[in-house]
User: Which sequence fits this backbone?
């Protein structure tokens, strides 16, 4: 597994040439609060390739079932299941809790990230310079440095991520595999659908990036 900050620089580049920030604002606003109710970190979240593999293969397996291509469905599920099982012991370093339900013990893996300026943010010469520098750093793969540049310049940036629950995804993949072996294709499809339905999308400011990894 190679954890990556799966983050595009194109969003920030668009801000610098746009007179309208509303069109590029995050669709999900972070909760309005001064102090997050969860532990935070300065670094950008790292994504898990296995989580992206699982959600992609789950969808592909469902399509294969609809087309009655059972062999392809089995192959997709086996691929996702193997990726999850092989890397499961490493997941603790990448998981986060639900930022909207900090008391929930369920752990999630980030598999897609994006950044967007707050719709109320006004670009100044100083912030534009910071955006240009951050954009260049992101293109170089130095995402953490880019976030720090934006933070120090007080650029109001929101981070939005898609997250997949670890335990239930593993369980549903195993269940789908067993159901297909039993010829229960409809039920297998429902198990795969539950993986897609379990994805949550959360937004937070760059000053409230949730801590990654199990506490303690």
Assistant:
């Amino acid at each position: 597994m190679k954890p990556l900050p799966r983050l595009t620089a194109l969003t920030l580049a668009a801000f610098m040439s746009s007179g309208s920030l509303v069109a590029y604002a995050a669709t999900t606003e972070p909760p309005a609060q001064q102090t997050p109710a969860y532990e935070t970190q300065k670094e950008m979240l790292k994504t898990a390739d296995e989580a992206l593999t699982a959600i992609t293969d789950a969808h592909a397996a469902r399509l294969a079932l609809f087309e009655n291509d059972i062999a392809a469905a089995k192959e997709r599920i086996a691929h996702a299941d193997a990726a999850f099982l092989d890397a499961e012991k490493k997941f603790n370093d990448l998981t986060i809790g639900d930022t909207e339900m900090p008391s929930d013990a369920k752990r999630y893996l980030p598999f897609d990230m994006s950044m967007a300026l707050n719709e109320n943010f006004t670009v100044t010469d100083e912030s534009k310079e910071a955006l240009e520098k951050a954009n260049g750093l992101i293109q170089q793969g130095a995402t953490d440095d880019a976030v720090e540049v934006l933070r120090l310049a007080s650029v109001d940036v929101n981070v939005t991520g898609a997250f997949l629950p670890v335990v239930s995804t593993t369980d549903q993949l195993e269940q789908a595999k067993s159901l297909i072996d039993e010829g229960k294709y409809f039920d297998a499809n429902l198990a795969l659908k539950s993986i897609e339905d379990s994805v949550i999308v959360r937004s937070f400011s760059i000053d409230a990036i949730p801590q990654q990894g199990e506490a303690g």
